[in-house]
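Long-time lurker. I teach an intro course on protein structure, and each term I like to show students one example going from raw sequence to a predicted 3D structure in C-alpha cell notation. This year I'd like something fresh instead of my usual example. Would anyone be willing to generate the C-alpha cells for the chain below so I can use it in lecture? Attribution to the forum is fine with me.
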Amino acid sequence: MLRLSTYIVLFLLLTASAANDGRKANEAYENGNYEKAEELFLAAIEQEPENARLYFNLGNAQAKQGKVEEAIQSFMEFRAMVESPEEKAMAEYNIGTLLAEGKKWKPAASHFKNALKLNPSESDAKHNYERALAEIDKNEENQEGQDQNQQDQPPPEPSEYAIAMKKRAEKLVEQRKYTEAYNLMQQALKADETVRAFNDFIERTKNVAEIDTNS
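-- Reply from a regular --
Happy to contribute to a lecture. Here you go:
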C-alpha cells in the first residue's frame, strides 16, 4: 500500500504584514479551503518572496486542488531556496507523492529516489520508492513490444510533470544556468518520456551549455 501522506510546514517566520496572510492561509488550509489558502500564500509571497516555507505550503495547497504542474513548480522553487538535505528531501518526497497519486510511477520513483539520496532515513520514501518500482515493472510487462517504434513517432503530448520541468528549466536559463537546466531536462526525460516534446528546447540548451563550458 502506498503511503501518501505529504510533508506540511505550517510555521512561518515573516514580517508583520505578510504574517497576517500566512496565518490566514494556514487556517484556510487546515479547514480544507485550499483555493483560499493558495490565494493567501501567493499574497504572502508577494510581501516575503525569500521565505521558502511559503512556497512549500503553496505547493501543498495547489496539490490538494489537483494543480499538479503548479504544485511541482512550487516544490521545486522551495527546493532551490533551502540549504539542508532534509528540507530538499521533503520537496522531492512531496513531488513523488503527488505523481504517485496520479499513477505516474516512473517520475514518482525518480523523485522518491532523490529524496532517499538526500535523507536515507526517510522510511516512507523508501516504502513508496519500492512500490513505484514494482508498478513500473508491472506496466513494462503489460506494454512489452508496444513501444518498439517510439523513436520514429512524433513527439508525445507533454504531461503536467513535463511542462513543470520545462518551466523550471526555463527559469534556470533566464539565470544563465544552462548546464543545470540541461541536466534537469535530461533527468526529467529519463523519468517521463513525454519530455521528448521539448527536444528542440533541450538541444538548444545543450548547445549553449557546451559553449558556456568551453568558453
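Some talking points for your students: Residues 123-142 form the longest helix (20 residues). Residues 10-14 have pLDDT under 50 and may be disordered.
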